[in-house]
Amino acid sequence: MIDVRNLRKSFGTLEVLKGIDLEVAAGDVAVLIGPSGCGKSTLLRCLNLLETPSAGRLEIAGRKLEFDGTTRVPERQQAEFRSATGMVFQNFNLFPHMTVLENVMSGPLLNGLKSKAEAKKLALALLDRVGLSQKTDLYPRQISGGQAQRVAIARALALEPKVMLFDEPTSALDPELVGEVLEVMQSLARDGTTMIVVTHEMGFAREVASKVVFMEGGHVLESGPPAEVLGAPRTERLRSFLSKVE
Ligand code: ADP
Ligand code: MG
């Protein structure tokens, strides 16, 4: 589903990604871990072209792109590529002036692929799936952070992406609200959703990940099944990282 080859990204003279290789099969959950500043968000942002990679190759759900530092991806190809991924951010990023239902309907209405009635039907089904059928007419300021993040997940799903990307989806939540968001993510995983998740929730990684990827300094240092990577880290750097987050 996802094939990343030798992906590089620099901001000016700062090289943040130094040749990332990453493969994620359909239905797999890849959990991305690593110290702050190692490039996790940049990698996710490259996957949906919020950042343009400086070099390397990207393949997502059959769409392929190659970068050489001067690449300008044509608008249409960019849109096509972007539609393959749904992204969930740390801070929810809901539209404050729209109700919960309108937030979830907004994507399909904007891209013009669904009628209003179809968009509403889909949004209601997705809000039911994330356990928020009772909250459809509230505004983001009227719901909890955990509920807001579940709305954000429903909103991303409404665009029917091939892959879901989560960037520290529970980091901004009060501890007692983390579980409800992880549960929704776990249920998506059970239903076969392909996901890449940046998180410090090692319990989630252990239980849900098909693959754990440890990044440091712009490189992938270790990658494999959770039992291997988390249970028997090979590098001192990973051991040291795990001792801090667990
Ligand atoms: P992580 O998500 O692992 O904490 P990031 O991908 O956010 O790390 O950031 C990696 C590095 O790239 C950091 O040093 C950060 O300051 C830098 N960086 C990220 N985005 C930009 C940008 N748009 N311009 C310049 N530097 C950036
Ligand atoms: Mg980040």
TrEMBL record:
<keyword id="KW-0067">ATP-binding</keyword>
<dbReference type="GO" id="GO:0005524">
    <property type="term" value="F:ATP binding"/>
</dbReference>
<comment type="similarity">
    <text>Belongs to the ABC transporter superfamily.</text>
</comment>
<feature type="domain" description="ABC transporter">
    <location>
        <begin position="2"/>
        <end position="242"/>
    </location>
</feature>
<keyword id="KW-0813">Transport</keyword>
<dbReference type="InterPro" id="IPR050086">
    <property type="entry name" value="MetN_ABC_transporter-like"/>
</dbReference>
<dbReference type="InterPro" id="IPR003593">
    <property type="entry name" value="AAA+_ATPase"/>
</dbReference>
<protein>
    <submittedName>
        <fullName>Polar amino acid transport system ATP-binding protein/cystine transport system ATP-binding protein</fullName>
    </submittedName>
</protein>
<dbReference type="GO" id="GO:0005886">
    <property type="term" value="C:plasma membrane"/>
</dbReference>
<dbReference type="InterPro" id="IPR017871">
    <property type="entry name" value="ABC_transporter-like_CS"/>
</dbReference>
<dbReference type="InterPro" id="IPR003439">
    <property type="entry name" value="ABC_transporter-like_ATP-bd"/>
</dbReference>
<dbReference type="InterPro" id="IPR030679">
    <property type="entry name" value="ABC_ATPase_HisP-typ"/>
</dbReference>
<dbReference type="GO" id="GO:0016887">
    <property type="term" value="F:ATP hydrolysis activity"/>
</dbReference>
<keyword id="KW-0472">Membrane</keyword>
<dbReference type="InterPro" id="IPR027417">
    <property type="entry name" value="P-loop_NTPase"/>
</dbReference>
<dbReference type="Pfam" id="PF00005">
    <property type="entry name" value="ABC_tran"/>
</dbReference>
<dbReference type="GO" id="GO:0015424">
    <property type="term" value="F:ABC-type amino acid transporter activity"/>
</dbReference>
<keyword id="KW-0547">Nucleotide-binding</keyword>
<keyword id="KW-1003">Cell membrane</keyword>
